[in-house]
Amino acid sequence: MPVKPVIIGSAPEPASDGTPGVNDPRLQPLVTTAREDLLRGLTKWHIYGRLGWLDVKRRYRRTVLGPFWGTVSLGMSVAALGTIGVGLWKQAPATYIPFLAAGLIVWVFIQSMVTESCGLFTSNPNLFRQTRLDYSILAYALVWRNVITFLHSVIVYVAAIALFAPHNFGTRVLLLLPGLALAVINGVWIALLLGLACLRYRDLQPLVANIVQIAIFVTPIFWPPSVLQASSRVVFVTFNPLYHIIEVMRVPLMNGVPARSTYVAVLTITAVGWAVTYPVFRRFRRRIAYWS
Q1: 127-149: per-residue pLDDT in tens?
Q2: What is d(CA 15, CA 277) in angstroms, rounded to the nearest whole number?
Q3: In the chain, what percentage of residues exceed pLDDT 70?
Q4: Residues 6 or more apart whose Cβ sits within 8 Å of residue 53
Q5: Are 4 and 13 in contact (CB under 8 A)?
Q6: Which of 27, 52, 270, 1 minimizes the C-alpha distance to 125?
């Protein structure tokens, strides 16, 4: 059946099956510009803060430990992999165990944001047809609930430091805060960009999941960068964006100061990411309800 074209500026017409068309006011976002969407959504912390917290509670409903189950699972992984890694990489436990624990808790934080971003707009398709809202609220809620989970995971790092390297705990751990802030800022554009891309092209979601599974092995999380040759280090360390985002949070956890090049790399990733995401969000934001 031929589709009747919609003339911009004309009155919205529903589809032949009664489904509202893309220009139907019921499918329009609450605000008119992407900038207003992002700024107004950011000010509604009481909404996305509660959404993120309720989602964490919903996931662990009727469990005894709740979100601490993730902490227990991560602790078991650090204990098992740390035992193998100490001998495999010929590292001292006081050096390798904190390195592994800090790297894993940061990696799980980033991995969760990336994989969950693919379902940002596909998980609740009816929401956009029945409610007018600032779409950025969903991205902020996604990042916030992962921050909550990350704070629970920090217990694993504290236990690793207390058992193997108590002398490494110092005031430099406060540098974790700016590193976490940079990761959160990047998490928002990742959520919006992947959310839009996976909403339009559904094959991208399993592709992203496969890439993330591979990335954990080619990023210095289980193995220290020093074990690589110079040529391989350039590929898997220097030009690996995940390494720099992890490093800006992992080094403070190990009572160190991230290198200036690490901050420059993360700030560059942030600028490029938002430079790509904002025009995409501005152009396709109105089609979210239509694609869903």
Answers
A1: 666 667 788 999 999 999 999 99
A2: 31
A3: 86
A4: 144, 145, 148
A5: yes
A6: 27
